[in-house]
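Intended use. Records like the one below are meant for learning the mapping from a protein sequence to its folded structure. Do not use them to infer anything beyond what is encoded.
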Amino acid sequence: MLGTILLRLVVIGAGVNAVSWCIVFYRKLFKNRSLMLQNPNYQGKGALLTTIQGIIIGVTMFFDTLGIGGNAPQTALFKMTKAVPDRLIPGTLNTCTLVGSATETMLFVSMVSVDPLTLVCFIGAVTIGARIGAKYVSHFPLKPIRIILGFGLIVVAGTMILRQFGLWVPGGLEIGIYGWKLIVATILAFIVGLLAAAGIGGYAFMIAICYGLGMDPRSAFPIMFGSYTFLMLASGLRFLKEDALDYRANAIGVITGTVGVLLAFFIVKSMPLEILFWLVIAIVLYTAIMMLIAGFRKPKPEEEAVEVQAAE
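Structure written out for the chain above:
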């Protein structure tokens, strides 16, 4: 009974987040419609850029729902197409997918089996970690952190591959964890929250934690999305107050992002478990490679500026 109540509270909380954002965002937009033109790139090609923004957000949210994460590809595509100015990218990333992320949480928590206590512990730990991290660790040097985490994820992916071939201790199919495993997972989730505040995405790490402690990979999805949904509203309101986001990208992203989430959700829900295991391994390896590339590559000055803004 208590477990059911906790799950419903998470779903309701995600819905409240989405509705609250829409009310505040559209109220401000309707009061000052000129905000739709604050992106200087819209001059003469507003419709084209809006279409590009919608496609980018829809496609990246599709893959985000598969667990691959959306911030890195969104940043690259926004910069490549010049659909969003560099100075507005951090705020846009934190807001254009808010409704889509809340949709992910409501769908996965409602329809994918997960232990309520495990879910609440993860959400609480990530949220607290991000709050503390925003104050103390958001300015830590990211390059060595990314290198260490990249190699760590390669080790995790290696053990997962060995398990698939029966050469390692088999992974579990539990929908929750208890006792010392839950304590360890909560501490690790707190660290993931700290990393999120430093601008390092945590989807692959959440999957690795769940899988490594014996959980069903499907159960990792509501934990991932639930943990991050509750972080986005506060940061989104800050960017909205400072007009540090692309309003048109947000307006179209509410629609296309949600459509991308819905399409991907039903693929994950019906996916055979064996295929899902390999998808999880691919996600972890992809994230490890991206971490190592970002860690060893010397960033351009404009990229450093965007990264600092995102962390702040």
